[in-house]
Amino acid sequence: MRRLFFIVPAVVFLVIATFLAIGLTRDPSELPSALLDRPAPDFDLPPLPGRDEAGFARADLGGEPMLVNVFASWCVPCRIEHPLINRLAENGIIVHGINHKDQAENARAWLDELGDSFSRVGHDLDGRGGIEWGVYGVPETYIVDAEGVIVHRHVGPLRPQDVERTIRPILESLQR
Amino acid sequence: MMRFFLVLALAWLVMLPPSADAALRPGELLEDPELEARARALGRELRCVVCQNQSIDDSNAELAQDFRRIVRERVLAGESNEEIKQYMVDRYGEFVLLRPPITANTIVLWGGPFAILLIGAGIAYATARRRQTAEADDLSPDERRRLNELLADGSESRS
Predict the structure, then answer these.
(1) Are residues B56 and B72 in contact, defined by beta-carbon separation less than 8 angstroms?
(2) Side-chain-side CA neighbours of residue B157 (13 Å)
(3) Which residue of B has its CA nearest to A12?
(4) Domain span at residue B149?
(5) Does residue B89 share a domain with residue B19?
(6) Does A34 sit within 8 Å of B92, measured CB to CB?
(7) Number of separate domains in chain B
(8) Residue B102 domain-assigned?
(9) Which domain holds residue A156?
(10) Number of CB pairs, chain A paired with chain B, less than 8 A apart
(11) Residue of chain A with shortest Cα separation from B67
(12) Which residue among A34, A127, A131 sits closest to B93, beta carbon to beta carbon?
């Protein structure tokens, strides 16, 4: 009976320590996506004025795996990741863009400067298109498979190791 | 004394509910006070996903403002509270609800405190019982006689 006095606190300590060890090592800013493994949301964005005639809508997704990148000219991390987006597009991957809460002329100048490799760009001036996707910050990048299902979401700027370790392997497994 | 009242006043300030002054802007409010009250109640139950521990009603973040606008649009369109919450959950997951529903995933969260309370009560009960039985037979007849003798000795020597 007396042994309980030592066992109970030890067990309680271990349980709390386990919970904290798991809970405190997770990044709280990284939220699970509600849309993962679900068909991409229904959305219909107008074109970026001055860039092209057609916008970007749900109907443009599917057919083959593609990337959807949410970006803005005012977003500094977007500037950092953009060369990687361009390189993916150079390698034959279709990348669509959602221009998040941006002025058209700023977005155009930004694309002129950093390279415009987007297939389609939707102009999401009020951010409502982003909300359909569950976007809560820019940049965000989604992988959509040939059936139009969201298979991966990356929050924050893509780094070279993200492209090598997650984006490329997922795209390759989808293309097979 | 002065310092005591100062501390008291500070403590009172700290304890004031922080939501007395929400982040809403005058232009956002709905004209119908009844609908606005519903939108406010919903706003307090939805999490601002960028600031995480604030409701969209309390947050100044741009995303929270967008969420408030969506809630008001949907309230005006005649949707029920459940429909509006479901709309947000479909896009942002159950994480947007500041009061998560009881499901298999959240049962530990909701039930945990009660389970711990029950375990604590069980331990307290067991300990109390053990102490009671221990008290009942702590002195043998021999010991009791000796104790009485000692007590008697003490009173004699003092007089």
Answers:
(1) no
(2) 6
(3) B116
(4) 107-158
(5) yes
(6) yes
(7) 2
(8) no
(9) 31-175
(10) 40
(11) A131
(12) A34
- Say if A13 falls within a structural domain: no
Residue A36, min C-alpha distance to chain B (Å): 10
Inside any domain, residue A151: yes
Three-state SS sequence of B103-153: CCCCHHHHHHHHHHHHHHHHHHHHHHHHHHHHHHCCCCHHHHHHHHHHHHH
Domain membership flag for residue A15: no
B91 and B19 in a single domain? The answer is yes
Residue to mutate among B66, B85, B96, with most A CBs inside 10 A, is B66
The answer to whether position A152 is within a domain reads yes
Q: Same structural domain for residues B50 and B69? A: yes
Beta carbons within 10 angstroms of residue B1's beta carbon: 5
Sort residue B85 into left (φ over 0), alpha (ψ -120 to 50) or beta.
alpha
A136:B63 CB<8 A: yes
Residue holding tokens 């005649």?
Answer: B78
pLDDT by residue for chain B (159 residues), tens only, comes to 677 777 777 777 666 554 445 677 767 788 888 899 999 999 999 998 888 788 998 888 888 999 999 999 999 999 999 999 999 999 988 889 998 888 887 888 888 899 999 999 998 999 888 887 766 667 788 888 888 888 887 665 555
The phi and psi torsions of B56 (rounded to 5 degrees) equal: -70, -20
Structure ipTM: 0.77
Regarding whether B19 and B86 lie in a shared domain, the answer is: yes
Residue from the list A126, A134, A137 with its beta carbon closest to the beta carbon of B92: A134
Residue B66, domain member (yes or no): yes
Contact indicator for A122, A57 with CB cutoff of 8 Å: yes
The alpha-carbon gap from B54 to the nearest alpha carbon of chain A, in Å, equals 14
Residue B70 touches chain A, beta carbons under 8 Å: yes
Q: Which pTM value belongs to this model? A: 0.72
